[in-house]
Amino acid sequence: MTGLLAVLSTPPEGFHAPGTEIFQYAGNPELCLIGSGPLCIQKVTLLMLLSAVAISAFFLMAFRAPRLVPRGVQGVAEGLVDIVRRGVVLEVMGPDGLPFLPLLTTLFVFIWVNNSLGIIPLIQFPTTSRMAIPAVLAGLVWLVFNVVGIVKQGGLGYLKNVLFPPGVPAPIYVLVTPIEFVSTFLVRPLTLAVRLGANMIAGHLILTIFAVGCWYLFSHLWTPGADWVAGFGVFSFALLVFMTGFEVLVAFLQAYIFTMLTAVYIAGAMHPEH
Amino acid sequence: MLGAIASIGLLAAEAAEEAAAGPENPILPDLAEMIFGTLAFLIVFGVLARYAFPALNRILAERAARIQGEMERAEAARTEADRVLAEYREQLAGAREEANRIIEEARRTAEQLRRDLQAKAEQEAQATVARAQEEIRAERDRVFDELRAQVADIAVELAGRVVGQALDRAAHERLIEEYIDQVAGSNGSR
């Protein structure tokens, strides 16, 4: 709020394009909202926790007294679960994957909500654009699919199936095995985290640029002799609206892709490639 | 519109706010955020796995059972309806047969009755006729007997008269005439 007042009270002196500094929330004691020190709760962590509370409250409300014929909140919640059940689990894993439905639904809803925070008015910061959530979730997925592989195929069997896929001529394993190792155990979690984080960073950066651009251009209305510059603010505003709509789509899509890939990885660990 | 302007302001404020902080690599995850992010995720997962999904699965199972039950009930009702229809048809056919049988029997009974009555009537008629003939015959015989007795009487009387009176031709004829008249008259009166 102090920042908002500062911007409103001082006329802009030249356009300053926002950069990666708009994602800096950690390591600054001034930003602590609750508590102090490096582990204090600042805006991003508060939003994460609030999103968890909101999602939990939503699902608890939906299934507190479930009806045979779903209505209202229950209908929405069942629809969400159904997206994951039909679109991801049954599509990718088959009925065997249904035990993973709670995990995959949690992933999908949690990521979707945290992505969508970037376009919810007055919040407007996707917590997934901080690398923490993508990294943690990618690590969790990595852990889950490896554990599933070890449990289903046995430690050695799993390693053998991953590193030495059958049906490959023996000398080619010199090439295949390192590639499979890197792609399964290193690249998978990395791409999973970076795909989500980078998408949300880019989206938030674009929205911020057009929003700041709008502000800068419109503020020329009060500048004598340069008020015509404010007219260009219309274009910036139009793009801001368009990109916000686009981010609605991206928020859903990235959550869906993350969930889908998780399902693919777990399914691969359950049933070795033939 | 107001909200949009407010959010533009907020985003700008955010930019200004963040510009004040020191440089940081945005690609590297922050420890505090990882901890709270994990916590947030686990809260959601815990609630979903512990409360939402059991409730959802219960209601889904209940729904499936309900639909299954409805379908089974509908199937049972259909089978029952088929059975009842078949039973009614059978009963109807039986009733029709029974009715036909009763009608046939009634017809036969009526025919029998008619024949009996006819026979009895004929018999009675014959008996009546026979009785009448018998009576007629008896009457005739009686009349004959009576007549014979009278004729004898008359003949005796006539003979007496003929003997007692002078017989002339005219008296003779008159006597005969009288006699015939008498006979005819007595015969006609009878």
The coarse overall form of chain A would be globular
Largest interface by Cβ-Cβ < 8 Å: A-B, 78 and 53 residues
> N-to-C terminal Cα separation of chain A, in Å?
59 Å
Can you give the mean pLDDT of chain A?
87
Radius of gyration based on Cα positions of chain A? 23 Å
Structural classification of chain A: mainly alpha
Instruction: Indicate the proportion of strand residues of chain A.
Output: under 5%
Number of domains of chain A: 1
Structural class of chain B: mainly alpha
Describe this structure in words.
The complex is a heterodimer of chains A (274) and B (190). Chain A is an all-alpha fold and 274 residues long. Chain A is built from 8 helices and no strands. Chain A has one domain. Chain A is globular and about 75 Å long. Chain B has one domain. Chain B starts with a helix and ends with a helix. With 190 residues, chain B is an all-alpha fold. Classes of the chains: A mainly alpha (274), B mainly alpha (190). The interface between A and B is large, with 78 and 53 residues.
